């Protein structure tokens, strides 16, 4: 039984079947990659895992509990965090402000800011934010405006914001899209470190096969909304069906 269990998920957009009978089992403390051609349904599937979309049929269970019908905030509270394709950070704020502002946010129905309950709590949040930024090699950019960061740094900042919540499942939507090779390699190293340091399961959508084969323990190939095959990276590389549907010469 995996920490994440997707069973019989279907999702239609009007006449288009974006997901057709998707089954997926992600084992705890592994990196599970979801790959496939454009339009295969990868982002739709990820959106179903974080409550952004509700499947027409099927179930999505995280650690034995259904995620369906929960708000993104509740899903976050369950231990699931997501790094988006386009980083969701406040460009007008500094790196440090982006890290600590969510800790001020009280979301009891409405979203509003509140004061920390004690100076000790405030100190704890500030220290943890700094530790996290150090872990992603951004401590020297603490006071920079987030809008002026490079694409890679914006991604790293978002990763640090997610890690601050100590997720058990981290969902990454094309974490290296648009990055130069050096930044891509830094991101691979960073994700390996993150994995080594904590008990965390990572589910990653990625087109760059160098990233996928560097990180993944298991790979699911989606094609036209349905899983074509799920296997180890070694077997995926050599699978003629996968080569035909997606990889071509990339593997
Ligand atoms: N909100 C929506 N309304 C209508 N159609 C949608 C919507 N979201 C996705 N689709 C369609 O569903 C199909 C799957 O899209 P999805 O974005 O999940 O694919 P993907 O595998 O993530 O593709 P890519 O690799 O290009 O990001 C596509 O045909 C897409 O056009």
UniProtKB/TrEMBL annotation:
<dbReference type="Pfam" id="PF00005">
    <property type="entry name" value="ABC_tran"/>
</dbReference>
<feature type="domain" description="ABC transporter">
    <location>
        <begin position="4"/>
        <end position="249"/>
    </location>
</feature>
<protein>
    <submittedName>
        <fullName>ABC transporter ATP-binding protein</fullName>
    </submittedName>
</protein>
<dbReference type="InterPro" id="IPR003439">
    <property type="entry name" value="ABC_transporter-like_ATP-bd"/>
</dbReference>
<dbReference type="InterPro" id="IPR032823">
    <property type="entry name" value="BCA_ABC_TP_C"/>
</dbReference>
<keyword id="KW-0813">Transport</keyword>
<dbReference type="InterPro" id="IPR003593">
    <property type="entry name" value="AAA+_ATPase"/>
</dbReference>
<keyword id="KW-0067">ATP-binding</keyword>
<dbReference type="InterPro" id="IPR051120">
    <property type="entry name" value="ABC_AA/LPS_Transport"/>
</dbReference>
<keyword id="KW-0547">Nucleotide-binding</keyword>
<dbReference type="Pfam" id="PF12399">
    <property type="entry name" value="BCA_ABC_TP_C"/>
</dbReference>
<dbReference type="GO" id="GO:0005524">
    <property type="term" value="F:ATP binding"/>
</dbReference>
<dbReference type="InterPro" id="IPR027417">
    <property type="entry name" value="P-loop_NTPase"/>
</dbReference>
């Amino acid at each position: 039984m995996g920490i994440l269990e997707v069973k019989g998920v279907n999702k239609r957009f009007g006449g288009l079947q974006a997901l057709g009978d998707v089954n997926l089992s992600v084992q705890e403390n592994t990196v599970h990659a979801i790959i496939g051609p454009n339009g295969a349904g990868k982002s739709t599937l990820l959106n179903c895992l974080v409550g952004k979309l509700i499947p027409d049929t099927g179930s999505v269970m995280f650690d034995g509990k259904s995620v369906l019908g929960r708000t993104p905030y509740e899903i976050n509270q369950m231990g699931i965090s997501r790094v988006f394709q386009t980083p969701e950070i406040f460009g007008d704020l500094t790196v440090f402000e982006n890290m600590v502002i969510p800790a001020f946010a009280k979301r009891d129905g409405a979203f509003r800011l509140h004061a920390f309950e004690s100076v000790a709590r405030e100190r704890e949040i500030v220290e943890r934010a700094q530790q996290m930024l150090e872990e992603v090699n951004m401590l020297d950019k603490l006071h920079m405006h987030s809008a002026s960061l490079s694409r890679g740094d914006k991604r790293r900042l978002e990763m640090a914001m997610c890690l601050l919540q100590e997720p058990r499942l981290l969902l990454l939507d094309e974490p290296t899209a648009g990055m130069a090779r050096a930044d891509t390699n830094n991101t691979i190293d960073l994700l390996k470190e993150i994995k080594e340091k904590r008990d965390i399961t990572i589910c990653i959508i990625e087109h760059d096969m160098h990233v996928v084969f560097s990180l993944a323990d298991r790979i699911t190939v989606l094609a036209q909304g349905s899983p074509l095959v799920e296997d180890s990276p070694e077997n995926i590389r050599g699978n003629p069906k996968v080569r035909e549907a997606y990889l071509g010469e990339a593997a």
